[in-house]
Task: inverse folding
């Protein structure tokens, strides 16, 4: 088991290397540079800046330089946020994104599985249709519509919650962003649970359990739930990686200092090092969560084994 | 639906006897699924709206009506009856004429005007230029050309869904945006389909080292942040919406390849494939004839889910201001524009949102229906 | 409240605000101003700065030789008085007794060190060129001379002498810019570029830095060592960055911020209806324009450029597309700018009747060989952004009667501006210019033929260049103004650029916030303000 985990993690190093190389060169061949803004810079000034940031060197040299720093654990200085290194920026933003993403994930799991189970147990009833419809609705409305609407309703009109801002992570500040993030996930999880729960309820071991006269609720919770978890787990891997690394829309609209914004700000402002930093973080999250999914799979489904 | 499931064994047996294909059975099952059928109908309507809607709509999607910027949605025609005379007066002030009488009879505007100087007949162009009046004619000119009587037809325009920030009819914009959004979805999905199926089937069929390498590539691409890729694609191909979504499709095929590979591996072990191999059919032939057609079920299901994903991706890019270029538009562009005008012109958000929600709803329900129909184990 | 950083309030944003409002009546309470800012500051190093968001914060942290009053008039800052030599080249500033936040006195040497630092090529200062007017400034920045040879000298601790390249009537204006603020020499020498960290930063302005978390907020607290600390009424300022302007509006309406520094233009009308007097729309030193690539075959003909410019209905764009957030412009230099009291040249066709204007424009195009039967194909390039898109769409429609078919090319900001700088294949391109200092030269120098990185129209007129050189050498303000006006008249005559709109600054200001004076610089130092119930 431990050997398996280690093998997987070592196996990810070439993957990361390819991703870093690919992103580095893709980013660099994109037109425009970090200092091309609405306010143009004097040619001489630009030259000085390029020299300060080593942009006057040949691309391969910059690449080697970047790799060298990376090997020493240095992600480089940010081109745009000049008072900070990329580590500092990501170090302060990542915990916030994780906090938001994890809360959203938990909320979505909780509500999603309850809704999905109810729908599955009352298959083809109005409750079922209602849940499916509401769940689908959650996926169809873009979050850049949901976020300002929630902020407007609860922040401005009802004055129940802050309309935006991080406020050191107070629960009141987190509520609306978390709901916005959770909404589409609730929808997907509810649908997944419903589908696999229906299948599980019809499967032999659940029928057997019922035939033994176990109480219906027990059957559902213990047997069906366990089987129904599998597709959710495999969905949650990539979803968790995406959620925990922040959402630019939610962070921008609610004004939260997570890393989702750095990713997009960095890409649009050609803040090369910042983008590379976020790319690496996201890639690591994807790799790690894929591994976690596989391990969970083994734990949940005795038929799957790793050695 | 319960009855479908319990009938499955009989149906399957019947299939064998009557030689009914998997597809015919699936179609039959699909027909019994009301939600999926309604979705299919809506989808067909959308496709029809996308293809012919822009032609049927009374306004062209790019026509600008400078006098009707951000007018709210209304069943009533613009200008409202009480607005015609003030509008005419405001237009006529530019002619510096003295207006002696002005009235509206039905759809005709009647103006008597005079001036201390000779009146230049060109001044009718002021009225003509406005969106409201057309066919301006001088009915009568006095001998000294210092007073005129003119008439003009009042153009009554209907903007059922209101107009946008440039004064373009929102209904026409929504119709053309449906066309573009569907095209984007179909295009990207089509590209993903071709690459994903070819990649997955080849990897699964050849197996061994080739499979390892090919799936390793998929793993690597999987860990590459997609948003980053999408933003870069816009930067590279932003000017050309077709190219751009071909490119989106070219990175969205990963799941498809995984699904098809899994299917292929299990199909390989089936008797008919082994029989074909024994008969000496080439690998390519087996892939084309036997493997790919048999993977289509899950592939189609996945497609109905990928189209909404691509449409939502496009709307995310629109939120970043990197959407489809003018004068074309997409549902995503309209909604992000609407979200910005949420409070001053809510109709600019509501109608495109309804259009998007309905479209995504029907794609999702159709996908569910197809899954039930094609995969008898489910439900 | 909130004295120690150890207290972690549950709902900091909302509760702190509420606490401030309800608690301010007691003498002990700290007064906090939560202030919406345009965007994140990219740096708090006054020598690397380039954005307005940074200017707003640095203005509270530092004090230059001269500063802006609440009404943005230039008033003495660290310098209590100054003299100029007869030729206008040598300026001698007498510094007053002022302290840094750590108690050190502010000396002339601090200024010498600062100006050498910004012009040192190794600093990588984005706005180093602001100080090219100082003798040898450009050469130092180019690395041709050592920083020590810059024309700045500390005569003694309290006397600073600055020598200029040319007589520069707007020199005092330049000194109000954040690039001219001093740094504390000792701490920069000790911490290097980390002197901007809250634990290291030493300031000489009314406030000092408490914390800076990008995308969250920058917190400042009153600097007790400031020379006029007793006159500063707000104890604490929190600058909250808003990339999404609508977010600031919502938080303003929810009472979470006391002012917003920019507003979404598309909401301006409804905001005015809802919030009335709290909406401030004030003329600003900025021009929104379309550069016409003079080097392109189809735009080489001034008649074509003239016709294109004439057909742009500025009133429509200003009032409908921008909802009154912009003002119609016919000349490049915005009104209200310093040293240009007589305003820009007359544009003859500006007041023409719209129909005559259209007839003339069509005739010009006909002469140039274009008509709806023989249309001119033009591409408008613009950077991503809602109103840029709507503006381009409206203009394409206005050009139709001329027989101009427009296609669009939108890029993200970085790609757009690098394209304008590095390539010459664009035709019509959107750009904007926000004045760095209040003098027409700051606008007109864009169109000098050797100003390649800025002259997006690739306008080349030797006569124009000559006039600009003359103006630079002229020390008589009235004559200089006249020369500049002639230059701008050339710009109009050649239709080198379509000056389309003048920017306005748009703010939301709560009635609780006193002392906010509208001004063309949009400079509002917190020290002039107070908060009341």
Result:
């Amino acid at each position: 088991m431990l050997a398996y985990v280690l093998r997987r993690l070592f196996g990810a190093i070439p993957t990361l290397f390819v991703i870093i190389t690919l992103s580095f060169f893709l980013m660099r061949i994109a037109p425009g540079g970090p200092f091309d803004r609405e306010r143009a810079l004097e040619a001489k000034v630009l030259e000085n800046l390029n020299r300060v940031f080593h942009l006057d060197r040949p691309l391969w040299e910059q690449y080697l330089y970047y790799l060298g720093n990376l090997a020493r654990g240095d992600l480089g200085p940010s081109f745009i946020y000049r008072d900070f290194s990329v580590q500092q920026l990501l170090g302060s933003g990542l915990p916030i994104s994780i906090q938001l993403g994890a809360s959203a994930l938990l909320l979505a799991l909780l509500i999603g599985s309850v809704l999905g189970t109810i729908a599955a147990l009352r298959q083809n009833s109005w409750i079922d249709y209602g849940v499916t419809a509401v769940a689908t609705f959650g996926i169809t409305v873009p979050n850049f519509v949901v976020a300002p609407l929630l902020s407007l309703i609860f922040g401005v009109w009802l004055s129940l919650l802050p309309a935006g801002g991080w406020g050191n992570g107070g629960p009141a500040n987190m509520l609306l962003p978390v709901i916005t993030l959770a909404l589409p996930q609730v929808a997907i999880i509810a649908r997944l649970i419903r589908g696999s729960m229906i299948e599980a309820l019809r499967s032999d071991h659940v029928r057997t359990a019922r035939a033994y006269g176990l109480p219906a609720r027990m059957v559902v919770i213990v047997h069906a739930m366990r089987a129904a978890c599998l597709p959710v787990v495999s969905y949650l891997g990539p979803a968790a990686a995406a959620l925990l690394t922040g959402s630019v829309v939610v962070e921008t609209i609610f004004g939260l200092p997570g890393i989702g914004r750095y990713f997009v700000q960095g890409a649009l402002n050609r803040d090369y090092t910042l983008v590379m930093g976020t790319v690496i973080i996201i890639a690591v999250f994807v790799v790690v969560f894929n591994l976690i999914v596989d391990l969970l799979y083994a734990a949940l489904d005795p038929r799957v084994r790793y050695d | 639906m319960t009855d479908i499931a319990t009938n499955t064994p009989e149906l399957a047996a019947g299939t064998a006897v009557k030689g009914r294909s998997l597809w015919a059975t699936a179609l039959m099952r699909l027909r019994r699924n009301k939600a999926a059928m309604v979705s299919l109908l809506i989808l067909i309507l959308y496709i029809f709206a996308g293809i012919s809607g822009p032609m049927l709509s009374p306004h062209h999607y790019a026509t600008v009506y400078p006098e009707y910027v951000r007018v709210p949605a209304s069943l009533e025609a613009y200008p409202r009856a009480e607005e015609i005379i003030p509008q005419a007066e405001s237009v006529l002030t530019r002619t510096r004429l003295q207006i002696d009488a002005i009235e509206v009879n039905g759809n005709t505007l009647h103006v008597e005007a005079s001036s201390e100087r000779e009146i230049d007949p060109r001044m009718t162009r002021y009225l003509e230029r406005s969106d409201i009046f057309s066919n301006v004619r001088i009915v009568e000119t006095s001998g000294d050309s210092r007073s005129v009587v003119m008439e003009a037809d009042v153009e009554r325009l209907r903007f059922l869904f209101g107009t946008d920030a440039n004064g373009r009819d929102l209904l026409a914009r929504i119709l053309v945006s449906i066309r573009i959004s569907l095209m984007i979805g179909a295009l990207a999905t089509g590209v993903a389909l071709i690459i994903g199926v070819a990649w997955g089937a080849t990897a699964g069929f050849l197996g061994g080292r080739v499979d390892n390498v090919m799936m390793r590539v998929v793993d690597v691409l999987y860990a590459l942040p997609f948003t980053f890729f999408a933003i870069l694609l816009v930067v590279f191909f932003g000017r050309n919406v077709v190219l751009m979504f071909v490119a989106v499709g070219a990175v969205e095929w990963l799941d498809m390849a995984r699904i098809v590979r899994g299917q292929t591996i299990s199909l390989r072990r089936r008797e008919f494939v082994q029989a074909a191999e024994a008969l000496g059919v080439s690998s390519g032939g087996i892939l084309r004839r036997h493997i790919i057609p048999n993977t289509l079920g899950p592939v189609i299901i996945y497609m109905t889910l990928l189209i909404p994903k691509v449409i939502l991706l496009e709307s995310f890019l629109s939120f970043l201001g990197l959407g489809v270029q003018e004068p074309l538009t997409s549902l995503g562009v309209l909604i992000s524009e609407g979200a910005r005008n949420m409070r001053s012109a809510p109709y600019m958000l509501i109608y495109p949102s309804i259009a998007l929600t309905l479209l995504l709803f029907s794609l999702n329900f159709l996908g569910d229906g197809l899954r039930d129909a094609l995969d008898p184990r489910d439900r | 409240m909130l004295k120690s950083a150890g207290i972690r309030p549950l709902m900091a944003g909302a509760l702190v605000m509420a606490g401030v409002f309800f608690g301010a009546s007691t003498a002990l309470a700290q007064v906090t101003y939560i202030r919406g800012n345009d965007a994140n500051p990219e740096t708090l190093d006054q020598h690397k700065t380039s954005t307005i968001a940074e200017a707003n914060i640095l203005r509270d942290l530092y004090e230059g030789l001269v500063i802006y009053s609440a009404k943005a008039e230039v008033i003495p800052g660290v310098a209590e008085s100054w003299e100029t030599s007869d030729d206008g080249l040598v300026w001698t500033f007498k510094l007053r007794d002022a302290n840094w936040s750590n108690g050190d006195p502010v000396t002339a040497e601090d200024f010498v060190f600062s100006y050498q630092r910004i012009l040192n090529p190794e600093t990588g200062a984005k706005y180093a060129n602001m100080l090219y007017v100082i003798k040898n400034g450009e050469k130092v920045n180019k690395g041709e001379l050592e920083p020590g040879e810059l024309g700045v000298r500390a005569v003694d601790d309290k006397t600073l002498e600055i020598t200029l390249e040319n007589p520069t009537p707007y020199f005092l204006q330049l000194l109000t810019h954040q690039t001219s603020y001093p740094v504390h020499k000792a701490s920069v020498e000790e911490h290097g570029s980390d002197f901007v960290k809250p634990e290291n930063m030493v300031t000489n302005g009314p406030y000092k830095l408490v914390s800076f978390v990008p995308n969250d907020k920058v917190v400042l607290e009153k600097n007790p060592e400031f020379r006029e600390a007793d006159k500063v009424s707000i104890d604490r300022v929190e600058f909250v960055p808003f990339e999404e302007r609508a977010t600031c509006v919502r938080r303003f309406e929810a009472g979470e911020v006391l002012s917003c520094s920019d507003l979404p233009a598309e909401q301006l009308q409804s905001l005015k209806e809802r919030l009335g007097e709290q909406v401030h729309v004030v003329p600003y030193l900025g021009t929104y324009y379309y550069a016409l690539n003079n080097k392109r075959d189809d735009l080489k003909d001034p008649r074509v450029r003239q016709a294109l410019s004439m057909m742009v209905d500025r009133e429509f764009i200003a009032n409908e597309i921008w909802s009154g957030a912009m003002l119609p412009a016919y000349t490049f230099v915005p009104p209200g700018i310093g040293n240009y009291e007589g305003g820009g040249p007359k544009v003859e066709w500006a007041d023409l009747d719209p129909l005559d204007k259209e007839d003339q424009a069509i005739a010009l195009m006909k002469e140039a060989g274009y008509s709806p039967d023989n249309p001119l194909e033009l591409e408008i390039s613009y950077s991503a952004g809602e109103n840029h898109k709507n503006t381009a769409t409206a203009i394409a429609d206005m050009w139709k009667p001329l027989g101009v078919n427009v296609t669009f090319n939108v890029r993200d900001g970085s790609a757009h501006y690098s394209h304008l700088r590095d390539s010459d294949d664009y035709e019509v391109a959107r750009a904007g210019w926000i004045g760095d200092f209040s003098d027409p030269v700051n606008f007109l120098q864009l169109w000098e033929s050797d100003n390649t990185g800025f002259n997006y129209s690739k306008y080349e007129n030797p006569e124009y260049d000559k006039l600009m050189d003359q103006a630079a050498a002229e020390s008589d303000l009235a004559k200089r103004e006249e020369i500049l006006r002639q230059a701008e008249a050339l710009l109009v005559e050649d239709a080198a650029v379509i000056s389309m709109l003048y920017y306005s600054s748009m703010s939301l200001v709560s009635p609780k916030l006193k002392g906010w004076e509208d001004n063309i610089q949009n400079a509002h130092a917190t020290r002039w303000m107070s908060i009341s119930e």
Remarks:
- Confidence is low (pLDDT under 50) at residues 1-27 of chain C.
